[in-house]
C-alpha cells in the first residue's frame, strides 16, 4: 500500500461567498474596504518535505488573502516570518 502522506502536497485556499466582507486592519478596529467578489482564490502553496512546517508553507496563502483586504501582508506572522500563536 502506498504511503498516503508522501509529499509534495499542493494546498489551495479559497473564500466562497466573500462579497461585502471586511477585515479588521489593526488593533484599533478599523475596517478594510469590502470585498467586491464572491470567490477569492489565494496563492497556491506547495508543501514539499517534512523539514517545512505547515504554518510556514501556508504563509503565501495568508499573505495573498490579506492583499485582497488591502493589507501588505498577513497579521498572523511577525516581522521575521514566524507564525504568531494567539
Q: Could you write a compact summary of the structure shown?
A:
With 86 residues, the chain is of the alpha+beta class.
Keywords for this entry:
two-stranded antiparallel ribbon, 86 residues, alpha+beta
Distance between the termini: 39 Å
- Weakly predicted, low-confidence segments: none
Number of H- or I-type helical stretches: 2
Q: SS-based structural class?
A: alpha+beta
Count every beta strand, where a strand is a DSSP E run of 2 or more residues.
4
Shape verdict: flat
Tell me the Rg in angstroms: 15 Å
Write up what this structure looks like:
The model has no long low-confidence stretch (mean pLDDT 86). The protein has a domain at 9-68. The chain has helices at residues 54-57, 59-68, and strands spanning 9-11, 14-16, 39-41, 45-47. A two-stranded antiparallel sheet has the order 1-4. The chain has 86 residues and is of the alpha+beta class. The N and C termini lie far apart (39 Å). 16% of the residues lie in helices and 14% in strands. It is flat and about 40 Å long.
Question: What order do the helices and strands come in, and which of them pair?
Answer:
Layout: E1 9-11, E2 14-16, E3 39-41, E4 45-47, H1 54-57, H2 59-68
Antiparallel strand pairs: 1-4, 2-3
